[in-house]
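During the first year of the project, the team set up a workflow for recording each protein of interest as an amino acid sequence followed immediately by a discrete structure-token representation. This format lets reviewers and collaborators read both layers of information side by side without switching files. As required by the reporting guidelines, we include two representative entries from the current panel. The first entry is reproduced here exactly as it appears in our internal archive.
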Amino acid sequence: MNLPIYFRSRQGEMAAFLKELVLAESPTGDKKAVDACSSLVLSRCARIGVKHTRYPLRDRGDFHLLEYPSKADDRLEGRLLLLTHIDTVWPVGRLARMPFYLQGGKVFGPGVLDMKAGLVMSYFALRALHELNLKPRRRIALFINSSEEARCPEADEVIRTQAKASDRVLCLEPALPGGALKMQRKGRCVVRLDVSGVAAHGGNPAKGVSAIDELMTALRKIQMLRSADISVNVGLIGGGEKANVVAEAAFAVCDIRFWTNDQKARILRFVKALGSGSRRAKIRVTVEGTTPPMEKTKISEILFREARAVASEMGVRLSAGKSSGGSDGSIAAGAGRAVLDGLGPDGDGIHAAHEHLLLPSLIERTALLTAFLQKL
């Protein structure tokens, strides 16, 4: 079976399903919207013989695990896990400013690349296995996360559990520009600083302790972490009440990113040791969230070489690079599994108004994914 030709013949159907998913806006945290969008994927997958496990949640969209084939088959060698997410960064109503449309081989729309295309790829790859009676090498599990864009401990735990139960993990996040896969990703620490000072009249600031001054000192210390490998972004800051009052309280939230677990450990030691320059002021450091880095490992390099060989048989040249953003692939890699990330289509504008994918890339990547499910 010539898979590229097979999927090119279904290009219109794939674009139509992608449009359906994009029009079903699904911002993280909007349970009703996310669950409605998930139902569109679940209803289609139910027709191709998958086993469905729902993880019900009260305040966010439910998680879903789909397993193919639905019945146990002892002839299959272990399990391969696909990671996708249904949520986007875009609020309901964004379509009025970012309509779905096709132009010059590009498909535009909120969430079209990140990552509703990955859901379209997953469904059509599984459907091809089912309709063409193609036997996968391993059992396949497809996880649909509802909270990837805003890290969720419950989702991370499910991903770790499912990754440990799998031999290999493929994450369908968008490719790097040009189509390269992602073999490394930066980890992330979100650190909040809350500073308590002593209020006083602005005309006699020496009688007080400015929480803002103390916060600025602490932030200058954090900036010392910056290097070629470590980035620091102060994303939120606030404090004080009036210009003529010495600030009694101030806060800041920092996004710190890094490439290795050793760097993560050093950063955490550093921020937890931050102290105030005044004995009358107090500083509280809270690590609000962490995402592990996805480091390049020997097992992932082996998996990449196998994937590159399969792609070569189809006349596709695969390359690999790294990304400063995190993904669910980072969680799976932290569980000690071989991970290939960035298997989604090529495009541009993730989290931006010009978000789009290249339609030929969507077709090629779906053909590749189907081949990987057969052979990896």
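The second entry, processed by the same pipeline in the following quarter, appears below.
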Amino acid sequence: MLESLTMLAGWVIAAAVGATAGVLVMHVRGRPVRQVCQRLSRVSGDIQADLAQLQLEDTCGQLGAAWNRLIEEVAAARRDLETLQIRQQARETLNNYEMKWFSQLLNQIPYGLITVADDWLITYANAAAERMLGVSEGGLKGRKATDFFAQDLSHISPSAGIAIDQTSELVSSPKLVRMTAVDALSETERAETALLLQDVTQEREREAERSNFLYHVTHELRTPLTNIRAYAETLSEGVLQDPDTLRECYNVIVGETQRLSRLVEDILSLSQMEAGAARIKMDDVNTSRLVRQIVEDMQAQADEKGVELILSMPPKVPTIRGDKERLAVVLTNIVGNAIKYTPGGGRVEVTCAQESSRLHIKVADTGLGIAPQEREKVFEKFYRSTDERVSGLPGTGLGLALAMEIVRTHGGTITLESEVGKGSTFTVVLPIGNLAAIQT
């Protein structure tokens, strides 16, 4: 449109100049007219030439002054036209830049955003929506949004102004996606609705984990509290005269109190580790003495269950840098789990070996084993196996999560090898000497 206006203005200017010149030639004779004709012929092929070349000298009288005023008006008109053209070009450039910037901004947000017509046809999709729905770049536009969701959405019309808030699994995966309406655009020929897509799979899993954790923690708290209350009430009645019975009551109360303390301590320690607020006291740790001490402490638990607890140590075990008390928690949790999930008559073996600049502490058992789909989850906090043989045993699902966090802060790792029905092997790998992790 602007180019057409420019051409039209040029023709008008040329026509005006030509007509004026013709009139002047027909009605006036003399030197000024000859100068006008000469200068017009000089610039006739280029209307964009400098109009100042058409100006006449002041000696040409009134005719020259009138001619010069005409040229000045034509020059002013051309300047206005050029200004309008520049402004239009600047506006178009700015609009293009803003659209490109806005598109890049939408592609950077972590939530999926699509616009759909009243028949659920997708007219726009950002990069997050394409990734969430498992489609390559540009593959969503022109397809129906309802094809990607397992839930039937055909009864909902996105152009009807209904407040859409639906959560459904995707057809191609078990991923849960929440879809909410953002706004309706009525300025277009076909009404469109913007829909925000949010992956809530992990959120639902975390909610399930929290519920599971609260269930198990409640159970863990209820049992020792019930025992403490029962034995305390028995003692308060003063009917027990047998010293052995009295001693048993006191031992039960103390034991259950310690059990509660360990549970609370595990929860607090894990929270501090995850928040980075835990203090790690790095010092030289006599690994051989530490492992032997843990095995000795766990021997009573193994004997009570009828599980053989074996310790295999090389003649020399290297010293490591670490927090002795927290490393003791790691080994206690892993060895304790091995004994807990190994049936009577089974075996738990603890071994140490140095491999290059790393110390490997292995705890192998002949217990229940862990299913492949659960091996990555056992280190998650609050996770409890769905196996009835495991879920029936006391536990909060915090032990391995806490062990993993402690080992991680020491610059090490924990690996797991397991086979259902044949047992599991947990391997704690820690750096030796100066290679130990820096405190976090």
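For the second entry, the following points were noted during internal review. The longest strand covers residues 176-185. The chain has four domains: 2-105, 109-199, 208-275, 283-435. Both points are flagged for discussion at the upcoming steering committee meeting.
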